[in-house]
Amino acid sequence: MVPPSESIPALTISPFERPGEAPPRPERLVGIGVAGYGYWGPNLVRNFGMTPGARMVAVSDLSPHRLASVKALYPAVKTTPVYADMLADPEIVAIAIATPVSSHYPLAMQALEAGKHVLVEKPLALNGDEAARLVAEAERRDLVLMVDHTFVYHGSVRRIRELIESGQVGKLRYFDSTRVNLGLFQRDVDVLWDLAVHDLSIMDYLIGKSPVAVAATGVAHVPGQPVNIAYLTCFFEDSLIAHINVNWLAPVKIRRTLIGGDRQRIVYDALEPSEKVKVYDSGITLGDGPAGPDGPYDRLVGYRTGDMWAPKVSLGEALSVETQHFVDCVSQNATPLTDGKVGLRVVRILEAATLSLKQGGCPVQL
Amino acid sequence: MVPPSESIPALTISPFERPGEAPPRPERLVGIGVAGYGYWGPNLVRNFGMTPGARMVAVSDLSPHRLASVKALYPAVKTTPVYADMLADPEIVAIAIATPVSSHYPLAMQALEAGKHVLVEKPLALNGDEAARLVAEAERRDLVLMVDHTFVYHGSVRRIRELIESGQVGKLRYFDSTRVNLGLFQRDVDVLWDLAVHDLSIMDYLIGKSPVAVAATGVAHVPGQPVNIAYLTCFFEDSLIAHINVNWLAPVKIRRTLIGGDRQRIVYDALEPSEKVKVYDSGITLGDGPAGPDGPYDRLVGYRTGDMWAPKVSLGEALSVETQHFVDCVSQNATPLTDGKVGLRVVRILEAATLSLKQGGCPVQL
Amino acid sequence: MVPPSESIPALTISPFERPGEAPPRPERLVGIGVAGYGYWGPNLVRNFGMTPGARMVAVSDLSPHRLASVKALYPAVKTTPVYADMLADPEIVAIAIATPVSSHYPLAMQALEAGKHVLVEKPLALNGDEAARLVAEAERRDLVLMVDHTFVYHGSVRRIRELIESGQVGKLRYFDSTRVNLGLFQRDVDVLWDLAVHDLSIMDYLIGKSPVAVAATGVAHVPGQPVNIAYLTCFFEDSLIAHINVNWLAPVKIRRTLIGGDRQRIVYDALEPSEKVKVYDSGITLGDGPAGPDGPYDRLVGYRTGDMWAPKVSLGEALSVETQHFVDCVSQNATPLTDGKVGLRVVRILEAATLSLKQGGCPVQL
Amino acid sequence: MVPPSESIPALTISPFERPGEAPPRPERLVGIGVAGYGYWGPNLVRNFGMTPGARMVAVSDLSPHRLASVKALYPAVKTTPVYADMLADPEIVAIAIATPVSSHYPLAMQALEAGKHVLVEKPLALNGDEAARLVAEAERRDLVLMVDHTFVYHGSVRRIRELIESGQVGKLRYFDSTRVNLGLFQRDVDVLWDLAVHDLSIMDYLIGKSPVAVAATGVAHVPGQPVNIAYLTCFFEDSLIAHINVNWLAPVKIRRTLIGGDRQRIVYDALEPSEKVKVYDSGITLGDGPAGPDGPYDRLVGYRTGDMWAPKVSLGEALSVETQHFVDCVSQNATPLTDGKVGLRVVRILEAATLSLKQGGCPVQL
Fold first, then answer.
1. Quick one: pLDDT at residue A343?
2. DSSP C101
3. What local confidence, expressed as pLDDT, does residue B185 receive?
4. What is the pLDDT of residues B343-355, one digit of tens each?
5. Distance (Å, rounded) from C-alpha B207 to C-alpha B54?
6. What is the mean pLDDT of residues B279-300?
7. Which of A295, B124, B135, D139 has the largest count of CB atoms under 10 Å?
8. Mean pLDDT computed over every residue of chain A
9. How far does Cα B364 stand from its chain's mean position?
């Protein structure tokens, strides 16, 4: 088991991080099979193809058209419409699953039962029980089960965690994330399971503890379709509070997270071209304005009372860091940063949120 | 009674809107008394001083220091530490109240009982019963009772209402407002009553109907102090949903409202120097991406599928439009856009939100 | 010869523009050879590989390492360290040259002499005489000679040209472009030939006429190295003026062009995620402020006196539109939008700018 | 004589900087007369009215209407249409001149001859000879002659100077300023004398030495009217270069200055609400990209290779710092930061720029 803090340096092994350096070569290359070549699959195949220590062996997908495009780009990669072919393939050591969420559990379970290490697209499963069974099966067989919480492997998010761990941010007070865009209605999951899962994975990584209760509200504008706008509040044991705002119908794309600590406050904007992480030495000490109906705060708002600092962050592709980490964990039998347990924690929160949503916002204990 | 839609043109009587044009002069100037010269009072005095048809008569405040600063700027304006002096002053026809919220009810009620028209700082009162009594008293005496919902008089908000009334935005689906900044902890009100009241007044003006239920979550980081971060969801009869995010501890100032309709979507950013209102002809018709774990939406996000249009909006000072409207209503015995009933509706929502907050987010019916 | 205005629709043939539509297939595929697989070459190979009507035949480069990476990605593509091999290859109908500028002339001339159609990286050549000889040779042999002015194929730039041609912008008054970033010192060209060439190609496409004189200033901070900061003014027959600001040492990346017409003004910001083109209905009619040392303009600045409009622009990859256009011109024997003559005009301006720079800014007639 | 570096702390005496602190009271208050109550005059009167140690005595203006508005706001201030009345007024110790540029010289000279200290609106005069005569007269009579280079008193500009003086920015390489907006055509000065004068005053303060030559280009779109778009390059003895882009016809307001040093680079954006000054630890060391037509710089552009830091800057009103400084210099007989000599240097550059403009951009030695 490699604790996160120690494994962080290892994660930086990536062509993006250290162009010159040759990564440690395991005895044998890790043969990779990718299930699903729809939206995310091609990114997985491309990155595993570039990952030192890995070898892209095969891709399975139900669509002949998609398999043809695999062949065109990667003549050496086997393609099959039959998932079982990959399970039976001795060259395949690990399987990455990038299929619709409803199929995550059966495909991942079959892979584990076939003795393959598994990387599963987020969310890990459709509910906590399925996720728990996958975790148990992976442990029983001592196989790597990793969930694709991509943002945890972003340089920005990793930098924020370093800032928090250094203590300079101080005691965390709030985590407030907005992830909205003009999206497309999903069929098998709602906007919480589709978008909020990203923020929950970031929150789990940065805060390092689970909420004690969640309250969620939202709406489904198309009858019979999943909820397409939702607001999630997470309550923690102390006065820490987290809030996530997700929306498939926004006119603009927003990817902004505010993280407030006693000493510093952080703004993480994933859409900023270079200054994605901003650290504010701001305080509320300037309270010498005259009293009034609105209080003096309006005299202060918009004025930082301290410096702002935008630390350099790695702009390398997160997925390449992640595929490298997965391959390292498989070849070194280490526990991934985002293992099944992390995936399970996030799914449990989503489950509770779904229940709270049905109750109109009443909090659900975890 | 002047219905809002008709009274809108009247509102544009303002030195900022039509520099050349002389406003209709009533028989006699409306004598104004301002109670409270703290944070907001000076703005009221300055604007009433510039308002055609009005005359600044007196200012009352408990602080001799503040009264001295009134004298220094406006030698002709009477000053007194005794509020009752203004009630007894025959020159004073109307009183503007800019004192702490807890004193709104007693001061406003005394003014009405003294036969004065009243403009009250937002929120109208500390609770619905007080607000209702003020509304009843004003009606009984046929006096103007107006609440200072300043944003309703902003050119941007008025322009958005015109867009919605024109039908081009289509059926409203959501109203999502964020109002955060590095504020100062208030003592007599929490962050909902301090900041969300602005968004609720904008929502009431733009949507034109009240929610059927509200759910609120939040936290008070300083024990014994008011809630300083809060999230409010408003449910309406149809699938319209509204959400308000207010925070006194943010590192940056954000004033952004997303308004979603079936045809168009609007982004209102009060901090944009000139393009405060952006209208997006965006849709979700481009759903031809390949299916996948995240669905094809990521191929679309960030891509507008239509034009964006930023209509010209008046950048004149809202308060000058508002003081003019108040004086017009007093001299023409008209009903203000933001009369006591509007103020009462907003206070009822805040009351319900406070109750929901105590219940950890369980919805409260209105 | 296809005049630009008519050929514009043809240009939109691109998988990005019309995913569903099958492009017109010529009798035979156009065999492509790419010379140089450094920075830009890989983009050419990737796009020609996706271009209907084209077939990637071979890549030449002096570096075995780079040729190996070609093989890895495109096993079917021939590779050779000898440029002459491509000249002799009967399968190759057209050659794209993406080598250092100093080699553009010899390689392009050899290709033309070998009867190949040619696409040359910008700038077309190191000086006007070389460029003119290439143009003459291509005409003599009736071969397509196209210069890679990529920005002309950007949806944004094409949209701006449509706006100008529609007449709504009015008579053009100025073209003011800033293209700065933290670049790397080039060895064979200076910042004008490296960066300003982009703006000059955009200017040539949008304005449609050449300047009568140019004046340039700049500095070389590293002795013996090329000028790394430069400012170029182009004078036209009427009062139209153009200015280009290029800098390799800026701390931030700026890609902004202001285009002023009598009726409307345009801001083109290539770094804006979606609203790359903004059209302002602004005027200077609001001149009713009091006279003073700075005049009343400060009362107006920052206030748009009209609407702003951001038309939808295609966000497809410009290079794919361009490679398609090249292949179409080769197979239909048409004249490219950015043919040798255009490349020559731009090189002539750069030549004059270089001379003016040596004179400390004195204008040079064209 | 107080050298700038020492006088900087003194400048921070301002109600905005140190609310609690009482400023040093001179024996007698400095009586102030303001000539011209058009655009800028009201700001001067308001600030002198708030300046400890000063007393607003009188305002002169040719317009009775404007004098009436003075009386309305400041009943205690004398008003007169006759400038000579202020010259003869023994209560007036210093005169601030905010009239059209063409009258700066005669009015300032008369004031000096009457023994009054003088603050003159920028630019100091219409040409260098006039400016020189004013400087000589002030020296002969040992009177304070200060030019209103407001930006020098902005917290942002003062902070940038501190950064440069600290050495952390390193040797300065370039100063590149853009100051454009939708302005109003001036009658008595062109865009260089109207807008570039601001940038030249900032440049003079930050760089601390004068250019050896200047080259300017521009255009007058309205026949017979002043140049309304201009581009100015300043050459210095070493390889330092400065460039200023001014435009009265821009659709948007831009106020951005890039300052490049060997160690750090600064972006000063006067329109940023809070982060007006950004310091980049960026370098060009990352030159390991593959060679190519455009070179590898495109791989780096947009990527900061170091941290960015936005120091806290005072957001107090610059004019209040400036009026305080003027009053301090008068009462302490000190030399202002922006004395006549500074004003003269700036006017000399503008003179040379005007000459270069007439020559189509040929450089003019200073």
1. 98
2. G
3. 65
4. 999 999 999 999 9
5. 32
6. 50
7. B124
8. 87
9. 23
Domains in chain C, CATH or no CATH each: 4-151+317-337 (3.40.50.720), 152-315+349-365 (3.30.360.10)
Q: What are phi and psi of D104, to 5 degrees?
A: -55, -50
Has residue A121 got a pLDDT over 70? yes
Q: Which residues of A touch C253 (CB under 8 A)?
A: 273
Mark yes or no for CB contact C271/A271 under 8 Å: no
- Of A210, A307, A201, A297, which Cα lies nearest the Cα of A264? A307
| Chain-centroid distance, C-alpha C69 | 27
Which pair of structure tokens corresponds to residue D68? 């009436």
Residues belonging to chain A = 366
pLDDT digits (tens, 9 = 90+) for C60-83: 999 999 999 998 888 889 999 999
Q: How far apart are CA C99 and CA C112, in angstroms?
A: 16
Chain D residue with minimum CA distance to C99: D293
Looking at residue C133, what is its pLDDT? Answer: 98
pLDDT for C179 equals 97
DSSP A285-347: ----SPP-TT-THHHHTT--SS-EEE-----S-HHHHHHHHHHHHHHHTPPPTTBHHHHHHHH
CB neighbour list of residue A235: distance below 8 Å, 6 or more residues apart = A211, A212, A213, A214, A215, A241, A363, B217, B360
Beta carbons within 8 Å of B96's beta carbon, 6+ residues apart:
B32, B33, B34, B35, B44, B48, B118, B119, B120, B148, B326
Q: Which of C273, C304, C305 sits opposite B302 (nearest CB)?
A: C273
Q: Identify the helix (H) or strand (E) that includes residue B147.
A: strand B145-148
Confidence check: pLDDT of C9 > 60: no
Both structure tokens of C208: 């449609």
Spacing of C-alpha C366 from chain mean position: 21
The answer to whether C107 and C127 have CB atoms below 8 angstroms apart is no
Q: What tens digit of pLDDT does each residue of A186-226 get?
A: 778 999 999 999 999 999 999 999 999 999 999 998 777 89
Closest alpha carbon within chain B to A195? B294
Percentage of the residues of chain B whose pLDDT score is greater than 90: 75
Task: Give Cα separations from A264 to A163, A284, A293, D306 (angstroms).
Answer: 10, 11, 28, 21
pTM, 2 dp: 0.88
CB contact under 8 A, D274 and A302: yes
Strands C117-121 and B364-365 turn out to be unpaired
| pLDDT, tens digit (0-9, with 9 covering 90-100), for C246-285 | 999 998 999 999 999 988 999 999 999 889 999 998 765 4
Contact A309 D307 (CB under 8 A): yes
Determine the distance in angstroms separating the CA of A150 from the nearest CA of chain D, rounded to an integer.
Answer: 21
The predicted structure's pLDDT at residue C305: 64
Q: Could D302 and A274 be called an inter-chain contact, meaning their C-beta atoms sit closer than 8 Å?
A: yes
With CA atoms as reference, the chain D residue closest to C37 would be D292
Question: Average of pLDDT values for C205-231?
Answer: 93
Tokens of D158: 């003062």
pLDDT digits (tens, 9 = 90+) for D157-211: 999 999 999 999 999 999 999 999 887 667 789 999 999 999 999 999 999 999 9
Taking the C-alpha atoms of residue A49 and residue A77, their distance in angstroms, rounded to an integer, is 10
DSSP letter, residue B12? T
A322, A148 contact by CB (below 8 A): yes
Query: Which residues in chain B are contacts of D274 at CB distance < 8 A?
Result: 252
Instruction: Say if residues D147 and D340 touch (Cβ distance below 8 Å).
Output: yes
> How many CB atoms are closer than 10 A to CB B84?
11
Query: How far is residue C225's CA from residue C248's CA, in Å, rounded to a whole number?
Result: 12
Which pair of structure tokens corresponds to residue D221?
């779109």
Residue D277 sits at the vertex; the CA angle it makes with D271 and D279, to the nearest 5 degrees, is: 145
CA-to-CA distance for A228 and A36, rounded, in angstroms?
25
